[in-house]
Amino acid sequence: MPETESGHPLLSLQNITKIFGDLVANGNVNLDLHAGEIVALLGENGAGKTTLMNILFGHYVADQGRVMVRHASGILVDLEPGAPQAALEAGIGMVHQHFTLAENLTGLENIVLGTESLFARRFSRSKARAKLQELMQSSGLEVDLDLRVSKLAVGERQRVEILKALYRDARILVLDEPTAVLTPQESDSLFKTLKLLAAKGMAIIFISHKMAEVLGASDRVAVLRGGKIVADLPTSQCDRHQLAEVMVGHSVQSAKRKPGYPEDETLVFAGVSAGEGREQIENVNLALRKGEIIGLAGVSGNGQSTLAKVVSGLEEPTAGTVSLHGNPLKPNAAAVIRSGIARIPEDRHHDGIVGAMSVEENLVLEEIRKPAYQRFGLLRFNEIRKRAQEAIKAYDIRCSGPLAVSRLLSGGNIQKIVLARTLDQQPDIVLAAQPSRGLDVGATADVHRRLQEARDRGAGVLLISEDLDELFQLSDRIAVIHRGHICEPMETEKLDKKQVGLMMAGHSAKGEQAA
Amino acid sequence: MEYIDILLSANFWAAAIRIATPLIFGVLGALVCERAGVLNLGIEGIFVVGAMCGWMAVWLGAGLWGGILIAALAGAFFGLLHGILTVPLGLSQHVSGLGITMFATSVSYFTYRTALPKVSSPPRIEAFQPLDIPVLSDLPFIGPALFQQTSMTFLALAMVLLVSYVLYRTPLGLAIRAVGDNPSAVEAQGLSVFALRIGAIMAGSALMALGGAFLTMSAFDAFFFGMINGRGWICIALVVFASWRPGKALLGALLFGAFDAFQIRLQNEVGAVIPSQVFLMIPYLLSIIALVLVARKADYPRALLQPYFRGQR
Q1: What is the pTM of this model?
Q2: DSSP letter string over B21-53?
Q3: pLDDT of the residue at B153
Q4: How many residue pairs bridge chain A and chain B with CB atoms within 8 Å of each other?
């Protein structure tokens, strides 16, 4: 075949099907990727995006279908399935959502790892360094290559990951949820880099469920839903609402703010101080009433996590008192759960579930000593199974069943387990720490709806968030936390986003800079 | 003071190094395994295998270096077994390791008894003799203290250099260190996690077996039941003490050797007053104390004890 730019794509996924148990993770997926374009692969959590990319990179073998890449001669050839080495050699570079870096090695060492014969007498750092200097300059990905990865910030680690691909002369770059861990500024600079790389002829796929970045950074959008491609069209022809609908499969109603009907005070902070260092809180006074949502706005790392720990019974205040219904709150997690406080932790993978345990076990974790689930110290498996099946249905937890290993579920589904476990106990207080962080549109709407339902039932909800849209959409009152100090909560109607944003950055309510 | 006399005798230092030699092999072996992310509690049994196989090979006429080769191969074989159980099959490294120790020990005893059913005193071989290095061995004090060791001691020291070089200077070492920290990183770069880990366990186990072989082929000239006597376990502790670094591993082994040599001499001095068991305890006690002091800030390989399965999060 003559060497032509015959319009052959660089990469072609043809009829990819992958089934895990009863779950069709990918069904007949077709996707082409051409040089110089940036394709956004959009989809909810659990839609099969990551599975598809893992097939592409050879971590999984597809049950059916072919992965084809353009050979140097211009024709498409099959990629050996299940072999990351083959994918690398074909010029596919992958930046995983969970970085694949050895933290005990430097950036440079991580990049050259596997690029030389293992049995070479020594590896040559100087040659690698020269090539990397050039790559860093041309791509704008600056990073200190001689620092151990454990000392690098998240954004820098991601740059090392991209450099890894560039160092191997990748033609195709795949990024799995690249912005999930980045600040907005870091995301912007990432997309600038990606555009630069595409302009040089690379083909780029990035996975995302954030509408704004999909519309802003891609040339083409492919939407994956339930393992199938349901839309594949140029970004210029997309519109936000239509995309969201295609992605979720039905029209999305984001929860409308409706006022609560607050009653008596329940959870009251009086002069509470706790924690140390950056996460210290000082002299916090706050009264949460039944039937209201207080939004606690603040940039992460201003003491929110300490406040959440105090409410969760994981940390004891150094001064002041926290009381619930007029009684002091015991600094003991078990007592806190029994007293009717639902805890939705910030790090749901780590603190929200026990990853190695099954979905059903996680669902009854907080209630395991209740007679409903145990008798004479023995678990009542049938009751637990029944409870799990109900919760899976009611909360639409996408998993293979009550016995699925929780760790393997997507973030949104893990959050649904946490919601089901905590909110079904009819709590008086709900502590929701960054409840929608990293979740897709559908899952976020679910979380919001559930929180509002709890509020309407009469619970007091303390919503810790840095997402202003979320705060304004849900809260009855908003308080701002900055450097461990919390201002008096104010009625949401009387606030605007700009004002709250400034307060989060340390300005006082009246507009002047705080000391 | 008799304590000072002990420290000033060349004989004490020579003994310290001699006692340290099997530990140097063992601790290096354990270090290589653990750097790749796999704990090898088979070490105690692999010591026995090395001691038995090395000795028996020489006894059957393989020659001393032939015996060393046989011992290393036997160690590597049991390493392979541990590797298959813990890496692709992902079984508990503790359970597999302890199983290997029991299995390897019994197989060695069994083989020995089968080969020599009727002897009352174990047959002896012509073991490694201390080298006479021109000039160095004749230096006053330093000569007898440091340079009148057998070839195996020098082999152990050479292994420290070799392991350091491989770990820190070669692409292979880079991959081994990476696979012990984050196997996904290795797989994402197109290398085989399984091959690297199993290879490292086999190499580490071969080193451990040399530690055992030293006992029957250099320290003594025969094989006895129970002669390993916990040396393998000491190595496991020493790796932590060494923070998984070959240089510190050498230091740890020498320190332990010095404690042990010291307590033997102390027993002779004051043994009439204090029961000898107290002295036998000293090196172990000191190693526990050293471990407590050092290990709290130890830099564990992050993936140690964690099986890796492809495509899992």
Answers
A1: 0.79
A2: HHHHHHHHHHHHHHHTT---TTHHHHHHHHHHH
A3: 95
A4: 96
